[in-house]
From TrEMBL:
Residues 1-18 form the signal peptide. The lineage of its organism: Bacteria, Pseudomonadati, Bacteroidota, Flavobacteriia, Flavobacteriales. InterPro entries: Secre_tail (IPR026444). This is Por secretion system C-terminal sorting domain-containing protein. Keywords: Signal. Pfam families: Por_Secre_tail. NCBIfam families: Por_Secre_tail. It comes from the Bacteria. Residues 215-269 form the Secretion system C-terminal sorting domain.
Length: 271
């Protein structure tokens, strides 16, 4: 049975899409990275790092305020390189709002942008469509759990990749109380992640059959993905320094990172 499970797991990986942070610091673990990626208008004072409030007890962007205008909470610059095949942007949202919602901008090379309005958000994942203009109609109430929001990018032309120009913005409606957390803003590469598995010749992970810790062959910024292609943990690691993964459930995961400038992905099995 174990051999059958492993074969099935690899099959799932073959159809999964690789995803990375949409811009530097967009998982909010390193808040300095995040604030350094924002344009000159900065971050609204009511948006802060939610330590322990993110997915799985990680960090989030916590928004707790009643905006007096339809605020740009933040606008992030592009972080190069972005995937050639930009399939979608995903983010996780948790919390409540009092009669208004969020709106997202994805910027083009000329400074104009595609608009995605969140509308009502409850306990089910949502996929948004491009809208003509920003609006904030809707209410957020996720029942205390994180809910996935997807912004499809396939077919959208001229998305900006210049790191000196705007890439992604979050806006909030005015005169309504927001008590929400945003986490794991990711961009999904439509190319199959399995390609990295078959090409990798360098070693990133020393122990691929693990219990509570992973040892690494060198220094790297790594991400751990589950079988659905979702990033469940990110970290900066050093050679021979163990990374604690006791919070992850048993199963098969993919660890990705750069070794000598080359992207390497390896499968691990957590027992």
């Amino acid at each position: 049975m174990k051999k059958i499970f492993t074969i099935l797991a690899v099959s799932v990986i073959a159809i999964a899409s690789a995803q990375t942070n949409a811009f530097k610091g967009s998982d909010f673990e390193n808040f300095t990275d995040f604030t350094n990626s924002i344009n000159s208008y900065g971050l609204k004072a009511y948006a802060t790092q939610g330590v322990g409030l993110g997915v799985g007890g990680s960090a989030s962007l916590n928004i707790n305020a009643t905006p007096t205008g339809n605020d740009y909470v933040f606008t992030a610059l592009a972080t190069a390189p972005l995937p050639t095949n930009k399939k979608e942007i995903t983010l996780m949202v948790k919390g409540v709002s009092g009669g208004k919602s969020l709106s997202f901008n994805v910027y083009m090379t000329d400074g104009s942008y595609y608009v995605f309005n969140l509308g009502d958000l409850s306990t089910s994942p949502v996929t948004l469509a491009v809208s003509a203009s920003n609006d904030y109609i809707g209410t957020i109430n996720t029942g205390g759990a994180y809910v996935k929001v997807t912004l499809p990018l396939t077919g959208l032309a001229n998305i900006n990749e210049d790191p000196t120009k705007n890439f992604f913005a979050v806006k909030a409606g005015k005169n309504a109380l927001f008590n929400i957390d945003i986490d794991d803003i990711k961009i999904v590469d439509g190319n199959l992640a399995v390609a990295d598995l078959t090409k990798a010749k360098k070693s990133l992970v020393k122990n691929t059959n693990v219990s509570n810790t992973i040892s690494f062959a060198g220094k790297s910024d790594i991400q751990i993905l589950n079988m659905n292609g979702q990033v469940v943990k990110s970290a900066s690691v050093n050679e021979n320094s163990p990374l604690n993964i006791s919070s992850l459930t048993k199963g098969v995961y993919i660890v990705t990172g750069k070794v000598d400038g080359e992207t390497v992905s390896q499968k691990i099995i957590k027992n």
